[in-house]
Amino acid sequence: MGLEIRVPSYCQYRLASMAKKNPGNSSNSNSNSFSSSETIKTPPPPRSKPLPLKWTHPITAPEKGSLLVATEKLDGVRTFERTVILILRSGTKNPQEGPYGVIINRPLNKKMKHMNPTNIDLGTKFADYFLHFGGPLMFLLRADETTGLRGFEEVIPGLYFGSRNSLDEAFGLVKSGARGPRYFRFFMGYAGWQMDQLVEEIEADCWYVAACSETLISGISQNLSTVDLWEEVLGLMGGIIRN
Question: Signal peptide location in the record (predicted)?
Fold first, then answer.
């Protein structure tokens, strides 16, 4: 329903007074006057469009759950060229607690079974899942609720990460049927910085910084190439950003 605005009777009084002062124009004045009972209807406000399932937009500084997207300045730098990094912790000024994340678009041409893991569960339940280049073993877990997810740290709503110390909890979820192997993604290592170091790299235009939706991360296929995701993220941000 549109918003109704009632014309005050004061307006009617003013129009009538003007008609008395200008009798020659009384017919025109009367025809343009409003009664106090008449209303003016305004159209309802437009409905806001729901956010798409996949979205990303630039932000000024990295935060937990945000993305670092390599700019063209890192072309030729083998480790980080055309990479997209999910920030797991934004870090502190303490040199031992700097920001770190995992490269989410650098799959290795190796499956878990090719690594001859000493852990039986890694070699069986996750045998045919690809490893991603990312140090210590880390993994992401997609989940819709927090029930029974002890030992994992939330990155953004619906997405958690764990380390080698959390493997027993991960195997427990799979054995109980609470989560299947397809909800996990394993990384060999992570990317880390000291706080000042990352700030300097961003100011030097080595990285775009962006917020993103959980579906952008969870929707990545196991073998998506580096360039595919890099181009998709920049496309969602409005195309290649150039200064």
Answer: none
